[in-house]
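[Meeting: bench + compute handoff]

Bench side (C.D.) handed over the final construct sequence. Compute side (W.E.) agreed to return the predicted structure before the next meeting so the bench team could plan truncations. Sequence as handed over:
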Amino acid sequence: MNREVRIARDLLSIQAVFFRPDDPFTWASGIKSPVYCDNRLTLTAPDVRNDVEYGLMELLKEHYPDVEVLMGTSTAGIAHAAITAHLMGLPMGYVRSGSKDHGRKNQIEGRLEPGQKVVVIEDLISTGGSVLEVVDVLRDAGAEVLGVASIFTYGMKKGLERLAAAEVSNYSLTNFDVITKVAAEEGYIQADDVRRLIAFRDHPSDENWRNV
């Protein structure tokens, strides 16, 4: 079994990724979504957590062999950055969504030296906005950001375009297309739902996916 399928099965088994095409969830943006993703649930499922963290380590060794520091996104990426850094014997830190209003007023937590080669650890990529804010902070601090490693990516056009424009690579353990296929094969959703789900992925703000 390849890594993308194994992680897809893991996430489905603990409902970290949960499909509900007939009763969509509402995102904070107002978008009606047939899928809900909460990768924090991997932290309370030890077998799945092991697959994720060792998977991230393998992914980093494959695509970012020169990495010197892992930086988690706040807050969902922090634990994954910490565990993966521990497995690899690397330093880690994380980037806050904004600077603290007290103490040293840090936005980057942990020691980061200018010129260090950094990979950002994120739990999921949708439109790419939040992870690119983290990349900008790290670049402004003088880091050489090699790219991003994430658990799951939707593969949305907007996200792909944003990452490309910022010259940021992302490698994920699994993706929306794989997890949708596995969900249909294993009975989490009906085979006819796959078209609707892919239509949502392609045009998330257009609710016509519900009628495909």
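W.E. noted at the follow-up: Residues 46-63 form the longest helix (18 residues). C.D. will use this when planning the next construct.
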